[in-house]
């Protein structure tokens, strides 16, 4: 990597990403690493200009207060600490430094250059991909979402026809989603695209599975198995491309930070993985992924497409997945997206979707008592997917959506709007 780097050591803070984003916004690249990083691991990182020891309310793990290795203090890197009383470095901050103080540390103390931008990042990644892949081929999981689309553009720039894209319909896609992916990437962009309909396979594996973590791991593991099977039909496939981004890694947990949820492409990977991973976006936050896509020349409508989780509707069909509830979810979600598009909210709301819990409530249909599912609508705004606020939807629009869903999806008899921010909630329900 050509860009200068500031390393943030996680000593139990809940605000690691806040500091990382503050530093990146000031034009310097930053990464979060575990508190017990070794000298050798630190020195193996490229262009480290300074270190931040970031303490906080989670400093105590298993009854002991975490500490950095003493030998780190003897290195030549400039160092500051935040909310870490055990620190042996000279500069003490009790709370997050403001931009002026951070600029002083970055540019005067560390002598870092403000060279973090998407043009430099892409140049670095193209060089790294070519070095990693050589003359081999990369198999890319192409969902058609923002992350995988940007990865595809990056890999095409780096290795061209050595890229083979695979779109797997796991039966958990939104209405007409797979058909749209094939149309855009195979028919319009002429990508080397393999389409696999694995609906029955995935739903069979998920039958009766209610635990969210287990569902994610089954979906992630089965994805890999499908790719392995497709790779065996080809020659020279040694690498698997993935749209892993930085929040996926952070939320899947570090040695100090607690796991929020295992992302299917991080915690869900099988131990006997047969591929070497190519993950050029794993250092980027979501807004940076979009900026990268624009820099790569992707159309805005693709780059700013609403996020869709890798496990798809599997984490919105809450609890054990049933086919009737999954189909009800797919239809309700299509209605929500249609109404948001008509009102223009699809261009202003970061993410919006329907989830359906695994229970029924009593209602009235055709003048008789009936039991039906509940559709839960969620609409949030965020910059980096680490925090999120609630979109205040016009009540008339909500009523229109509820009327359409209950009229057109007869297995649903209640529609509710969920209004909890992240944190304490996550964006998805599972």
Automatic annotation (TrEMBL):
Keywords: ATP-binding, Glutamine amidotransferase, GMP biosynthesis, Ligase, Nucleotide-binding, Purine biosynthesis. ATP binds at residues 143-149. It is an enzyme of class 6 (ligase). Residues 116-305 form the GMPS ATP-PPase domain. It holds the Pfam family NAD_synthase. CDD domains: GMP_synthase_C. The keyword Repeat does not apply. GO terms for molecular function: GMP synthase (glutamine-hydrolyzing) activity. Its EC number is 6.3.5.2. Pathway: Purine metabolism; GMP biosynthesis; GMP from XMP (L-Gln route): step 1/1. Coiled coil: none annotated. NCBIfam families: guaA_Cterm, PRK00074.1. Catalyzes the synthesis of GMP from XMP. This is GMP synthase (glutamine-hydrolyzing). It comes from Enterocloster hominis (ex Liu et al. 2021).
């Amino acid at each position: 990597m050509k860009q200068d780097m500031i390393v943030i050591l996680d000593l139990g803070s809940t605000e690691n990403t806040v500091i990382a984003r503050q530093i990146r916004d000031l034009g310097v690249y930053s990464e979060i690493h575990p508190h017990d990083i070794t000298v050798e691991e630190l020195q193996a990182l490229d262009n480290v200009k300074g270190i931040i020891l970031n303490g906080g309310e989670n400093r105590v793990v298993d009854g002991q207060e975490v500490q950095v290795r003493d030998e780190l203090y003897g290195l030549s890197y400039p160092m500051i600490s935040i909310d870490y009383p055990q620190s042996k470095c000279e500069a003490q901050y009790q709370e997050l430094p403001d931009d002026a103080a951070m600029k002083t540390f970055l540019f005067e103390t560390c002598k870092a250059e403000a060279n973090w931008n998407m043009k430099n990042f892409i140049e670095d990644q193209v060089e790294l991909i070519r070095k990693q892949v050589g003359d081999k081929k990369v198999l890319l999981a192409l969902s058609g979402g923002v992350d995988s689309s940007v990865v595809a553009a990056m890999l095409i720039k780096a290795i061209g026809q050595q890229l083979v894209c695979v779109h797997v319909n796991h039966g958990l896609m939104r209405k007409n989603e797979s058909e749209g992916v094939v149309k855009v990437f195979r028919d319009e962009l002429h990508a080397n695209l393999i389409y696999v309909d694995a609906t029955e396979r995935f739903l069979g594996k998920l039958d009766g599975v209610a635990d969210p973590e287990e569902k994610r791991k089954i979906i992630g593991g089965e994805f890999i198995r499908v790719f392995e099977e497709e790779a065996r039909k080809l020659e020279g496939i040694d690498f698997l491309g993935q749209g892993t981004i930085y929040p996926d890694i952070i939320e899947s947990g570090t040695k100090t930070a607690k796991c929020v949820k295992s992302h299917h492409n991080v915690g869900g990977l099988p131990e006997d993985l047969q591929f070497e991973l190519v993950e050029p976006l794993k250092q980027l936050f979501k807004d940076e992924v979009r900026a990268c896509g624009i820099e790569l020349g992707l159309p805005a409508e693709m780059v700013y497409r609403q996020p869709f989780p890798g496990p798809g509707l599997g984490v919105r069909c809450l609890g054990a997945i049933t086919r009737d509830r999954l189909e009800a979810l797919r239809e309700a979600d299509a209605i929500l997206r249609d109404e948001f598009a008509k009102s223009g909210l699809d261009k202003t709301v970061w993410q919006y979707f329907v989830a359906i819990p695994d229970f029924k409530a009593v209602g009235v249909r055709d003048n008789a008592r009936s039991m039906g599912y509940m559709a839960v609508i969620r609409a949030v705004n965020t910059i980096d997917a680490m925090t999120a606020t609630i979109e205040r939807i016009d009540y008339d629009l909500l009523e229109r959506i509820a009327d359409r869903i209950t009229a057109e999806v007869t297995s649903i008899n209640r529609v509710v709007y969920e209004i909890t921010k992240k944190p304490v909630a996550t964006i998805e329900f599972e």
